[in-house]
Amino acid sequence: MTDAIPSLAFLGAGSMGGAILQGVVASGIPVDGGIIATNRSQEKTQALAGLDGVHAIALNDNPHGNAEAVASARVVLIGVKPAMVPDLLAEIAPHLRSDAIVVSLAAGVTLQTFARVLGEEANVIRSMPNTPATVGKAVTGLAAAAHVSAEDRAIVRRLFELVGAVIEVPEEQIDALSTISGSGPAYVFLLIEDFTRAAIDKGFSEADARLMAEQTFIGATALLAASGEDPAELRRRVTSPKGTTERAIAVLQDAHLDRVFTEATDAALARARELAAGA
């Protein structure tokens, strides 16, 4: 594989697809054959049109835009809403290159759904990125169909590594992964909300409370990344025996946070399975 990434088509370059697209452009890595992105509206299309090397198509103006986009693309990313995926696949199936790699960004849409429309031999990979892709800090799970070659998996892995870390898993684990890294940013934001509220209740202004809470999370995760230490070890270093932090940690542990997070992610997994079943 060369330093360049092969030609890309983003069908539905919304929030997540757009984040991946912008990560590719920001990386400065050349794309052999260029990038084509489609969106329904002219407004969303114009937001992408200024990106270097991107040809943006508004489907309202060009109803054949999806077919045109995939005809020359080696990697085709499906970024439309899950309910729209089968119809989109039927639309593009006759126009895909024989060596195309089709990458799903749609939660809950199985590899078998893609195979039913595109054929059992289609090269399909499910992806589950998360929203920090917009700042190059994503965690993306990849699950490839069994017959996808190592070279094709490497192409897609490299693409997503432009916006963060990548984990390859079997498809049966992709929904479980979504409950951790996919939904995980929301859990962190909720903790920051509640931490901020606790500071406000202690008399701090909203601005100061937000600064303390947000920067404490940002600083702690930066320290974790820079140190290479286990988080439990870093926690122990902050927790002096018989000190204030130890007292606070005891309250949190008495609340059984480990059980709460298990129950929360179990609930998310149950819902992911409902969605996959069409419920």
TrEMBL record:
Residues 171-275 form the Pyrroline-5-carboxylate reductase dimerisation domain. It catalyses: L-proline + NADP(+) = (S)-1-pyrroline-5-carboxylate + NADPH + 2 H(+); L-proline + NAD(+) = (S)-1-pyrroline-5-carboxylate + NADH + 2 H(+). Coiled coil: none annotated. Residues 8-108 form the Pyrroline-5-carboxylate reductase catalytic N-terminal domain. GO terms for biological process: L-proline biosynthetic process. InterPro entries: 6-PGluconate_DH-like_C_sf, NAD(P)-bd_dom_sf, P5C_Rdtase_cat_N, P5CR-like_CS, P5CR_dimer, Pyrroline-COOH_reductase. This is Pyrroline-5-carboxylate reductase. It comes from Microbacterium keratanolyticum. The gene is proC.
